[in-house]
Amino acid sequence: MLANWYVVTLPYGEEYVFHEADVGHIPLDSYNRSEGPWATPVELVPYMDDPTISEIEKVEGYGARMSEGEFDSSDWAVFETRKEAWGHLERNFGVEEPRDFK
Fold first, then answer.
1. Buried b / exposed e across 51-83, counting CB within 10 Å, b at 16+?
2. Distance CA 79, CA 1 (A)
């Protein structure tokens, strides 16, 4: 799905958090103005495995994960194009894009 995401850089890699429904607005200027690491914003704590972040930015992209649902805990991966997102699902999970998907 095309949406806005927070890309959070942690000591072990990146995490993607769905912006609109999950956490809403986070004032990025306060985090990216000075050198990190910083404590994870309170809005992101439920989604992060590590209490410190070194960078956070907001991006638009296509999110993909194996299953969907409110209680799903699988990680999101975010891509610039829908084709890249489906390619990720196909390579990692054997899920093919439906022919009638628009």
1. eebeebeeeebbbbbeeeeeeeeeebbbeeebe
2. 10
In whole angstroms, how far apart are CA 29 and each of 7, 13, 26, 58, 102?
14, 21, 9, 11, 36
Query: How far is residue 89's CA from residue 18's CA, in Å, rounded to a whole number?
Result: 18
Question: Which one-letter amino acid corresponds to residue 67?
Answer: S
First to last CA, the chain: 11
Tens digits of per-residue pLDDT, 10-44? 888 888 888 765 666 676 766 655 566 777 777 78
Q: What is the DSSP letter of 42?
A: G
